[in-house]
Specification:
nine-stranded antiparallel β-sheet; 6-hairpin_glycosidase_sf (chains A, B); homodimer; 39 strands; globular
Chain lengths: 764, 764
């Protein structure tokens, strides 16, 4: 745990000893954000794969320290709180993913007679790395600071949407340098990552430019940059491979680095501004010029904090200090992405590698298997304008690929995970009436994305067999369950648009999950193409990402995935009691086969909060008339699997999804079916939470007598009237008002238990 | 040998037996072009690495059959006359290079129940390959035809600048298919070649589109396409890896192929039009729409022939049938590239991977170490408008990389070979007053290209040592000699522009070759960085492309490389007699060390016409007063090392360079120093050759009593006045007129032997 108060007092301390360091107090909800949450496991546990660096909401730039040599699954953000050295500050990062990628434009200040940039200088034990200490490291939204101990340099970072701003305070009597390394990536050796071409150009003694073209997890990315220094470069070296190009103004190659020397004999503060663009150096220059006009680091940092407060104050909460830290850090993490991919002039690299142009903002980083569940529903509530841009950005991929994103990075599909969960996101946006979403275009895209086969989506197999036979399509049970849900979403929009034939087709497909339900074992199980159950079957056995019927989970965890027809799942299970019993078993059976998928973590019995398939399951007791058990487990997850330490998440934070679960759950409700317009009520955790709906309208959730023990709903009112439903409509939330809960230590086994109180399938 | 008469009569024969095949007689100089010259070695010798397919002058599309599995050094064009099977027809090829690259958009017609496109279907023994026979194969400028024996399909190809046009005549009672293979490349396993992403999209039953992004020798190429069929597709399969996407309209991936079925039960002729673009599918569509409006294959083929005649008739010759075939095929080969890289709307992918726009045409494929010698000088004579575009295209790389091209492919530098020989090309263009060339921009580019170090051009080493020390920069002797020449070119333009300081600097550098001249051995030899000669030294020992002081040659071959100051080389050698003796030795010493570089071939003693370092050497006797020996050896090379067989070149044809040597030499003069405005006179071979200078003006070279034996100049007149100079100015040629030679069997040891008759260093 790294409480915010410690950070602030540390900052005050530093301001006394570090020349040039000035503590800028943060006010508003941003003050409760601790960017170190989720950045490093404690005692070998799990973290969130988050980064602590400086960024603004939904920005293109994430300027953050890279501590890893080569990230493994646990440190894809480049930073691990357990690491002891920093390679430098690169301008792009992913938050919470399981694959390491980006890390563009590494900048590192150093001192000393010589800085080595030959060999593999970003690796530990060589080159320009520096030790650092968490005692001399701070972070807040839009700002990061660290003392580079090997060089006695205080490094501070802030950012705008398209630019990074660095402030390096060098010690007196030092020889000051800045290293740029375009060969730096923490993804080497994976995904055939390779620099295709790169360049550093010295424009004048205050300005450098360049680019790199790189292939990796994203098939081809172009990152152009324009950098300005506020002090003159007095000497520099440009390097490709091990060749030093002395006196050159430019160097090209696939292993390009540079060292810039500054006259820091008396010590000084160097400011470095860096704009980036996926289109051109000229656009990088424009991006920087538009966003950072002055050499005023503190103003840019203040602006970044203000941007964060503008977004974070969309939910105003009362609660404990710890609740506020967890809640606002979670909300912060949900707003880190999707990431801007267009320049200030609207240009971007389209999904077919042509140059696109948008009037709005073009976004990418769509980790949809994760984020369709709660992050995107949260955006439809808090980010309506951006949601339209998200939809339009995904439609760009549809126009190019013929189908919508599965997992899209820098405009390119990587087919990570399964399903086509852009479909619920788009259908939800239409159903909720998000302005700027063109319904017919969305319908064409979701329909074709459900008919045009692509990796893990062989639709001809789907329609031929009515399920995925494992011997034809691996991950067959998980895909069957998730595809049925996506089909239900298509059917709902078809129905709304009066496309009866399509509705019937997709509604029929949405029921295919039944074909893998084994009523003998009461599990969803794999079949072969002849319709035979594949044996032996062990519901505790894990699959990963292929070669097994289940995806990053087991049959227990996938059992609950019929979000569009939970009453039918209750019925298949054997009715209310059997369903509750099975849920009870799920949350208590600790049996394992000895192996598990690395993504499964944060266990409560078989429930694994560290990965997404479990995320809606605590809320399912409501469908069988025992909402107090939902309240119990929702509270348990919030209280036990989220905290304020660097290990504050129970698994990959996954581009906002783990955080969005918390935000909804703390408010007291969760979108079990994210395209239904229905939230299912759990255990509200905050004294008061006011969602700002625009034009001064709010929807407020209040609790009376809430505490870590008072987790059970005793009664509720909506706008003063008694409320016994265990769910609430999105439209009720949008209408504004007050939802008040009276909480208590003991379950109220009467509240919300009527059949009419059970969540319905859809409000649309 | 494959005489043109045979080709024509074969065509006539085919027209009687192959349904749909119509012989279009070719008139004009194009009738003398035999595209099979240079396509395959005879008896294990060398060929030119040329392709026989259909293309127009300087086009983007080279639609040609690929016969090779994986080209090695000898078959980089994809086609080897010795091969027995054809994989298909891909739309882009290089002519005469030593590295295999391009091969985009393979199209192959097949018949039969099933066409396999799984596995590696373009490889011999699998998939869709077909046997073929030279007995049923024809080619002429802009047209190629072959009978695919496995399928009984007659395939004909023609092209426009940006589009290919296929005519496939299927047999009756066949099931007809067309295969598209976007994974086809004959460069796999080299240069880390990899498909980054590709797509085939079925737009409707007559139209398909797509693209591929590929990394290889060219670091990153984007090739978009738009294909139209004149008959409906009745069925198709789209494939990625081994997954068949039945019923899909689109497939994406890195191993994408497709099979399109046509209802050919009754047999028919299928027309296939394919536009390509390096920018977008939309541009590929525009390119096709602008260039091929009708479904009239013969018209497009006729237009292609007409375009060739328009270019080829720029030199009108009288001579023997064989001379005409060799001459016009050579001229044809010189006009195959540089290749158009911009679309009809002027868009192109710039050297920094942004989207460029030109008002003229943007070109690439600059094999400059080869082509600066004779091909580019020929363009300044025959292709003045294009020369300005070549210059401006090279300047685009300068703006991006900071220096001009060394070897540029698809706008990207690959640093193949040594020197910076875009400099003589640009200086020559300025000195000759080519319209549309901006002098100051050229000067900035050539100066910076001589100061900004890059691979094989470490200018700080150059200026520090006054030569390249072999232990610091390998290929040191070759680079020293060639760099000195490039520096001389910079000096000349500096002088013209009154930049005295620059002139002095580069003039001084142009003399650095002296520092490697060993007066004890009278060879240019390598030194180390301390100035010591590196021993042992063997003038017969070959270097290749690194690790040795000489580049693809030996000290004998590099001895002659002081093109900017031959009188000084004569002096260093010990005067006229010593120089002549050394030349005599060069052409007669057959000693070898047992090894040689593969590029060295076409030997006359140590002289190796198969590679460029020797190319000017036959002309050097003129500098020592014995022009008849130049006449002897120039005639010997023409008569013995060029012929009309598939093995008609003595080595890599090298993007027009081997051909340009022949064109100049047959005319009777050659640009020993390609940026001097001086041609050195050899042994004119043609009865009459009239160079069309525009506006009806011609420069005519006539010979009297020329034959294979009458190779010696007895006397000459220029515009009727006696002419004894062994050189002629470019400006004299441009002025028009008649240069007439009287030839004879015996040397006239008086003509051209006066000191005043010796070539001067420069006419500018």
């Amino acid at each position: 745990m790294k409480p915010i108060v410690k950070i602030i007092s540390l900052g005050t301390l530093l301001s006394a000893v570090v020349p040039g360091y000035s503590q800028r107090p943060v006010t508003g909800p941003a003050a409760f954000v601790n960017p170190f949450i989720g950045t490093g496991a404690v005692n070998g546990g799990l973290s969130g794969n988050n980064y602590p660096g400086a960024t603004v909401p939904f920005g293109m730039v994430q300027l953050s320290p890279d501590t890893r040599e080569a990230p493994d699954w646990g440190t894809a953000s480049g930073y691990d709180y357990n690491d002891k050295t920093i390679a430098g500050f690169s301008h792009t990062h992913l938050s919470g993913t399981g694959v390491a990628e980006l890390f563009d434009l590494l900048v590192m200040p150093t001192t000393g007679a010589v800085t080595t940039v030959a060999g593999e200088p970003d690796k530990p034990g060589s080159g320009y790395r520096s030790a650092f200490s968490h005692q001399q490291e701070t972070a807040r939204p839009g700002y990061y600071q660290v003392k580079l101990l090997d060089y006695d340099i205080n490094a501070e970072l802030t950012a705008t949407t398209h630019a990074g701003f660095h402030r390096y305070t060098y010690p007196r009597n030092s020889k000051g340098h800045v290293v740029i390394d375009l060969n730096h990536s923490l993804n080497k050796g994976s995904w055939s990552t390779r620099i295709i071409q790169s360049q550093i150009r010295v424009v004048n003694n205050h300005t450098i430019e360049g680019f790199r073209i790189i292939t990796g997890w994203a098939k081809m990315r172009k990152v152009y940059f324009h950098i300005q220094f506020n002090k003159p470069v007095v000497r520099y070296q440009l390097v490709n491979d091990n060749t030093v190009y002395t006196g050159n103004k430019v160097v090209n190659g696939s292993n390009v680095r540079a060292v810039f020397d500054f006259d820091t004999q008396q010590g000084f503060t160097l400011l470095v501004k860096a704009g980036i663009s996926p289109v051109s150096v000229e656009n990088a220059r424009q991006n920087l010029a538009q966003e950072i006009t002055a050499w005023n680091f503190d103003k840019t940092a203040d602006d970044a904090a203000a941007l964060w407060n503008k977004e974070l104050q969309k939910i105003n909460i009362d609660g404990s200090e710890q609740q506020k830290q967890i809640f606002y850090t979670a909300l912060y993490h949900t707003f880190l992405q999707p990431n801007t991919l267009s320049d200030v002039n609207g240009a971007y690299m389209a999904s077919d590698y042509t140059q696109g142009k948008t009037k709005g903002t073009h976004y990418s980083t769509f980790s949809l298997w994760d984020t369709y569940r709660a992050a995107h529903p949260l955006y439809t509530l808090l980010q309506q304008t951006r949601t339209a841009d998200f939809v339009n950005s995904m439609l760009n991929q549809y126009r190019s690929y013929g189908y919508l994103p599965v997992w899209q990075l820098w405009g390119q599909e990587n087919y990570c995970m399964i399903g086509n969960h852009s479909i619920p996101v788009l259908v939800d946006a239409v159903m909720k009436g998000i302005p700027g979403v063109e319904v017919e275009k969305v319908y064409e895209a979701i329909k074709n994305s459900s008919l045009i086969s692509h990796p893990n989506s062989p639709f001809q197999v789907w329609e031929q067999y009515g399920y995925m036979p494992e011997n034809i399509q691996s991950q067959s049970v998980s895909i069957t369950l998730e595809m049925a849900y996506d089909d239900w979403c298509v059917a709902q929009l078809a129905k709304k648009l009066g496309k009866t034939e399509d509705y019937n087709r997709f509604q029929r497909r949405s029921q295919y999950y039944e074909h893998l339900f084994n009523s003998a074992t009461r599990f969803f199980q794999p079949k072969d193409e002849k319709g035979n159950w594949i044996t032996p079957f062990d519901p505790y056995k894990y699959g990963s990402n292929g070669g097994n019927p289940f995806t990053e989970g087991n049959a227990w965890q996938y059992y609950w995935y019929v979000p569009h027809n939970m009453p039918h799942l209750v019925q298949l299970t054997g009715g209310d009691n059997a369903f509750v019993t099975k849920l009870d078993s799920f949350f208590t059976h600790s049996h394992t086969t000895g192996e598990k998928n690395d993504n499964a973590s944060g266990f409560i019995g078989q429930y694994a909060h560290g990965n997404e398939p479990s995320h809606h399951v605590t809320y399912l007791y409501n469908y069988a008339g025992q909402p107090w058990k939902t309240q119990y487990y929702a509270a348990k997850v919030m209280n036990e699997l989220y905290n304020t330490s660097s290990s504050g998440y129970a698994g990959n934070e996954d581009c906002g999804e783990m955080s969005a679960w918390y935000v909804f759950s703390a408010l007291g409700f969760y979108p079990v079916n994210p395209a239904s317009g229905i939230y299912v009520i759990g255990s509200p955790q905050l004294k008061r939470a006011a969602i700002q709906l625009g034009a001064g309208k709010t929807f407020e959730v209040r609790t009376r007598k809430q505490s870590d023990k008072d987790i059970y709903i005793q009664s509720a009112t909506l706008n003063g009237k008694p409320y016994t439903r265990t769910w609430i409509k999105h439209s009720d939330v949008l209408a504004g008002g007050v939802l008040e809960f009276v909480m208590g230590e003991q379950p109220n086994t009467n509240w919300g238990t009527g059949v009419a109180d059970r969540p319905i399938n859809s409000s649309f």
